[in-house]
Predict the structure.
Amino acid sequence: MRRLLRALLAHAREHAGTVMPGMTHGRLAQPITLGHALCAHGWALARDLGRLRDWRRRADVSPLGAGALATSTLGLDPEATAAELGFGSAFPNSLDAVSDRDVVQELLAALAIAATHASRLAADLIRWTDEALGFASLADAYATGSSMMPQKRNPDVAELARAKAGRVLGDLVALTTVLHGLPLGYHRDLQEDKEALFDAVDTVGSVVAALAGCVETVRFHPEAMRRAAEAPELYATDVAEALVVAGVPFREAHRRVGELVRRLEAEGRTLADLTEAEWAGFGLPGGATLLDPDRAVRARGGPGGPAPERVLEQVAALEGLLAEG
């Protein structure tokens, strides 16, 4: 997982200023930078690593000395054996120690979330490498051909990574189903934790390793991203916010820009087709400058935003988290 995060950050640093269209609902939304998108995946991975660190602290408890359920009459010292074995502490309650497997359940939950994040990254890689967008190209080692169509380069590795999240979630649900009705005490049902645990660990390990290779070797195409980021509809919000700066309440600005965009669509035009006189008549003389992708991302310079300097701040922060271990 750390390798995957490092690969994302290397690209994010390189492409801190590479403009691309941001999407909501799978539709064009606002201009962002590739570095901003990659950092978004990076922050998700950082939280996954944090969850695993938190889990390890709670899992660092030795059950040795709990016996079958009620400790022993032999005067055992669970704290001493816990220290000898390298655990952080011994169990606080022997019946709890033998009854529960929430330590496994919590790990499976963390792995299911990590697998979901990996699935979302895989989905973006698949979308970005679609020939219709052409934002990126997968290395040959991470694409496969078709048994029928000789031109195909299918993103099979990313597709399998996308699908594996369901398998890990299934492991979590399977164990939770086993545990949910058990009364206190040991039951043979609890041995069912092994299959779910081993499968989830192996699956997430293979998915993350495969995606790390995909990301390390992917080639991004800034020119294609920039062309897509020049779509005039991406800048409707910028136009509305410019009206707000000019003193128009946002509700009114939103309405005016919506009406303008719909009128232009009916005329077969876009915001890019407005003349200077039309911009002035709309209350925004020189408004054509609002459609510049570089200006748009630089203007979004607030903390956590897509402006290049903010992306580099995020890269540095994530690199710092990696250095902390």
Notes: The first strand starts at residue 19 and ends at 24. The mean pLDDT is 96. Strands lie at 19-24, 27-33, 61-62, 89-90, 136-137, 219-220. The domain at 231-292 is CATH 1.10.40.30 (Ribonucleotide Reductase Protein R1; domain 1).
